Amino acid sequence: MNLLIENAKQIITCHTRGRRFKAGKYQSEISLIENESIFVENGRIKWIGKKLPSYVKKSNPKKINAKNKTVLPGFVDSHTHLVFAGDRDNEFSMRIKGKTYEEIAKAGGGIISTVKATKKASKAELKKLAKHRINSSIGFGVTTIEAKSGYGLDTKNEIKMLEVIYELNKETPIDVYATFLGAHAFPKHKSKKEYIDEILYDMIPQIAKRNLATFIDTFCEKNYFSVDDTRKIFMQGINFGLVPKLHTNQFYSIGGIETAAEFDAISVDHLEVMNGKDINALKGTNTIACLLPSVSYFLDISYAPARKLIDAGIPVALATDFNPGSAMSENIQLVMSLAVQMLRMNIEETINAVTINGAASLGISHNVGSIEVGKQADLLIFDVPDYKHILYHFGVNHLKTVIKKGKIIM
Ligand SMILES: [Zn+2]
């Protein structure tokens, strides 16, 4: 089926000009065009312009009138933990009464409580819950999403989670990328060494053999996985063809950034706590800084130093980190609002952070993340006459239409 989006008031193309991501002053460049149309053929953008070529008219496309509306590339949520069972509403209630994330974890709450519920749940149950959440993400404009394992913490249940993610990619209208995060927490009743050996010699080979994940990640943090643990896991992951990504610098700076840079990680995620050395270690690398301001909002911890990162020429992406403990929200537009208000990012930097830079942090910016001829037609139509209204008229979802691979999915 062909599709013609006619006469958009604005099209925010986020054109890359051949770059893999946007950094420094280019992160503000959104390449706005006005009063133009987009023609989509076989799921790809075939033409963008004012005067329709005759082949477009002849192809008799389905038409969408975008007069007074704004078109953006589909959003890429490049960091989520959307497969899980159970909830942590009681823990939330405890926390807002003053208990810290670490105190709750030490008292047996935190990740481990989600692990319990996820282990118990069948694949079908997990998938049903996750599909519901993906639908919610689509409603906010997400057309590509990443999802991590990490609530299984044994070979059988980590693989169960990754199988769910694999099937979500086939059974939902959007693309779902899998990250193996066995190193999310340590299970009870196993020594640290035993568990890391299980990750290295049991999980990684099986997951890689069955192509169940693209990325490998660890929670590199004090009391969780050290720099040495991360290094071992990355080395083995890379041996088996997985691409490193890293949870780091959420609570402490323990050398995760340097380790990620050493292994050419595709992204470093969180970065709420960054010193000058950490920023220097990222400068000039190909690693995307993926910031998760919903976590800072929800846990009431410091926000990542987005301005310092952007001003140092480091490409910044934004994602939800959707998970039941520290960011129970699929709303990527809320993330954008927080980026503008709390991270002091400008509107244009924020848009690039959830489109082209989000795509770069999944290694797919050659295919999605901008509106360019030849790219996959993942497009959003907002009922606003100017893109600034998406963030200016805040707390309201102005999204009217979501298009994935040329098909209207919402
Ligand atoms: Zn996370």
Description of the structure:
With 410 residues, the protein is of the alpha/beta class. The chain has helices spanning 54-58, 89-96, 101-106, 111-120, 123-139, 155-171, 192-209, 227-239, 256-262, 276-282, 293-299, 306-311, 332-341, 347-354, 356-360, 389-392; strands at residues 3-12, 32-41, 44-49, 62-65, 70-73, 75-77, 142-148, 175-183, 215-220, 243-248, 267-270, 288-291, 316-318, 379-382, 399-404, 407-408. Helices cover 36% and strands 21% of the residues. The strands form two sheets. Strands 1, 2, 3, 4, 5, 14, 15 and 16 form an eight-stranded mixed sheet that branches. Helix 6 (155-171) runs parallel beside helix 7 (192-209). It is globular, with a radius of gyration of 21 Å. The mean pLDDT is 96. Zinc ion binds at residues 79, 81, 247, 321, 323.
Topology of this structure?
Layout: E1 3-12, E2 32-41, E3 44-49, H1 54-58, E4 62-65, E5 70-73, E6 75-77, H2 89-96, H3 101-106, H4 111-120, H5 123-139, E7 142-148, H6 155-171, E8 175-183, H7 192-209, E9 215-220, H8 227-239, E10 243-248, H9 256-262, E11 267-270, H10 276-282, E12 288-291, H11 293-299, H12 306-311, E13 316-318, H13 332-341, H14 347-354, H15 356-360, E14 379-382, H16 389-392, E15 399-404, E16 407-408
Parallel strand pairs: 1-4, 1-5, 6-7, 7-8, 8-9, 9-10, 10-11, 11-12, 12-13
Antiparallel strand pairs: 1-2, 2-3, 5-14, 14-15, 15-16
Helix pairs in contact: 5-6, 6-7, 7-8, 13-14
The structure holds zinc ion.
